[in-house]
């Protein structure tokens, strides 16, 4: 947030999930009643420069709460790679509500996009969903980067390497049961506005992931195919984030969705 010509540091937040995992987060105050809940990709953190730059641009349109998923950065617990991370988002949404924000927009990159889809579909109560470079389905191994990701997740030595290199702690037991894939629940986001952003140069997930999400979602929905755009937060240009912020402001300025109106009030939790 910019105040009197100076960039203000984020307000540090310590949140707790429904299953008692400590979540590290940061809040940029916004002048409007709109708050972006910013969800990072695998092995990333809201404290990294790319996410901080994205948060600063979105902050022109409202408040921003960036969080570290469980097992990432300074958060506790272990990553479940898209399963119980919905509880991390729930804690961030509740924190935004407690701060008086009436409109909540989930903005997720890669893994964070998959979690945003699942949260909006299963929990509701948000006013817009934006995904950037999100996968449509699990266990995708058709690109070299995704084969490396699966090695990191599934092999003991891989989990040790990513913990040492990136500080990401991954749960060793895998999924039981397997959570709903993003494309399987995308249709349940409606009538909340849903924007799918994907690059035609994404080295992790080809365009068929974006088309599958769009095809199984329902209106109101939009699909932006970005020329020469790579993957997630590290490739996102300021111009793209500006357009996402403007789209979100316009989409959430409409009457609140039925899902948001009917969502129960968030119960107080610890910070």
TrEMBL record:
Residues 252-271 are annotated as: Disordered. The keyword Cell membrane does not apply. Keywords: Hydrolase. Pfam families: Hydrolase_4 (PF12146). GO terms for molecular function: hydrolase activity. It comes from the Bacteria. Residues 259-271 have a biased composition (Basic and acidic residues). Residues 36-162 form the Serine aminopeptidase S33 domain. PANTHER family: ALPHA/BETA HYDROLASE DOMAIN-CONTAINING PROTEIN (PTHR12277), XAA-PRO DIPEPTIDYL-PEPTIDASE-RELATED (PTHR12277:SF79). This is Alpha/beta fold hydrolase.
